[in-house]
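S.,

Sequence below, as promised.
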Amino acid sequence: MTPESFQFLTGLVKARSGIVLNTDKAYMLETRLAPMLKRERLASLDALAGRLRSAPSLPLATEVVEALTTNESSFFRDGRPFEHLRQMLPKLAASRPAGQALRVWSAAASTGQEAYSVAMIVNELGPALGGRRVEILGTDLSRDVLARAQEGLFSQFEVQRGLPVQLLVKYFKPDAGKWRISDGLRTMVRWQCFNLLENPAILGRFDIIFCRNVLIYFDAATKTQVLANISNQLQPDGYVYLGGAETVLGLTTRLVPSSGERGAYELMRSAAKAS
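The prediction came back faster than expected:
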């Protein structure tokens, strides 16, 4: 692959997803795009770049971007944000007008473990939410991973990553060597294809936003824009959860760390009042 082809393909990915792929990721292009080359009968990544240059709006371009996004997820990842969520949901439920649902957004939801972790917490809280309805939305730019998330079928390896055995037994059933999540839990989550480079106003306002371990793939300008967008959709007393290696420092002044919590952020008071 020539440097020009690498620059073109990674430029396509950045323009459509915000993800930055440096030269040390050349192996990723070779391995993840190899099946596509075979199927399309293209001799090389240079040939693929050539085809996309001549017809950039082809569905093939979307497929390239989806193939090069990282879909890493696990149940109750890093633990602490979900413990914080468990404490905050009853307080948020008690503060809302009668009949108003709590809304949770799992952005860059991948194969759904994060959103289903939220659903399990909601179900376990039960009466502590005072009968409050909770809407959970999982979004991702990849239709393939959203289809997997909606199916709710996970491998033994996937359920072993962060899922307590008591929750596995309670909410999953064996299915042909894998584990299928219960219909009751699966129907608690709605899935939608959405690109974080777009304006999330179409999704509405949220009490809780998970945008974890995705900013690390963006450059500073894209991080700033994404944080501004999700801040606009956060309720004044809501919370945003970022990954352990992510921060808002130097990127936005609208979000500040929640006191004593790692990875939890809330609107700065002035921004909350403006909302």
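The mean pLDDT is 89.

Coffee later?
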